[in-house]
Write a structure and sequence with these properties.
The protein is an all-alpha fold and about 190 residues long. Helices cover about 65% and strands about 0% of the residues. It has 2 domains: about 45 residues, Homeodomain-like (Arc Repressor Mutant, subunit A), CATH 1.10.10.60; about 140 residues, Tetracycline Repressor, domain 2.
């Protein structure tokens, strides 16, 4: 079993959840859509409910894809702004808000490690790399540590997603996140 198999399962599951709803999607359909086996599915997940926590994994895949476009010339604050815009566009266009809401509710009541706060995720490693580079290059303030900035950035993104869920998606997520992140990241500029 490899990461690619898990990725296929997660991608297929979220595609089906979006197209036909969580409750109307079966494990068998996920297996068929992913082109994997029942054994592979249960190797990675206890059942369909376990896939709710995999949204963080799907986000990480998007970040890995976006990171490939990181040019040496790109200002690191601009790149953080770009990452947020692209992720939130993906969320708005391909993640069912009811599933996102369900994910947040499970993360609030889960005992143990929260998928969204797992600092071993690619997301946190990428943010740390970008902020470190930005500080070294003089683009990001050194008034705060790398860890503090990463924590504040991640907290801001979660807050935006949470508020969007609370408001049942009544406003355009990407548009409002761009306004908010512009203010937030403006405060991180090295003066």
């Amino acid at each position: 079993m490899n990461r690619n198999t898990k990725s296929k399962i997660v991608t297929a599951a979220w595609k089906l959840f979006y197209e036909q709803g969580y409750d109307n999607t079966t494990v068998e359909e996920i297996i068929w859509e992913s082109g994997t086996s029942k054994g592979s599915f249960y190797h990675y997940f206890d059942g369909k409910d376990a896939l709710l926590g995999s949204l963080a994994y799907l986000f990480d895949e998007k970040y890995e894809e976006l990171a490939k476009g990181l040019s040496e010339d790109t200002n690191r604050l601009d790149f953080l702004f770009y990452l947020n815009a692209e992720l939130f566009e993906m969320v708005e266009s391909s993640i069912d808000i009811d599933l996102l809401t369900r994910l947040y509710s499970t993360q609030l009541t889960t005992r143990g490690q929260s998928h969204l706060l797992d600092h071993n995720r690619y997301y946190y490693k990428l943010l740390k790399k970008i902020v470190t580079e930005g500080q070294v290059r003089g683009e990001i303030t050194k008034e705060y540590t790398v860890s503090e900035i990463v924590r504040l950035y991640a907290m801001s993104e979660r807050a935006l997603l949470y508020d969007w869920c609370l408001n049942h998606g009544e406003y355009p997520l990407k548009e409002y996140s761009q306004k908010t992140m512009k203010l937030f990241l403006g405060g991180m500029k090295n003066m």
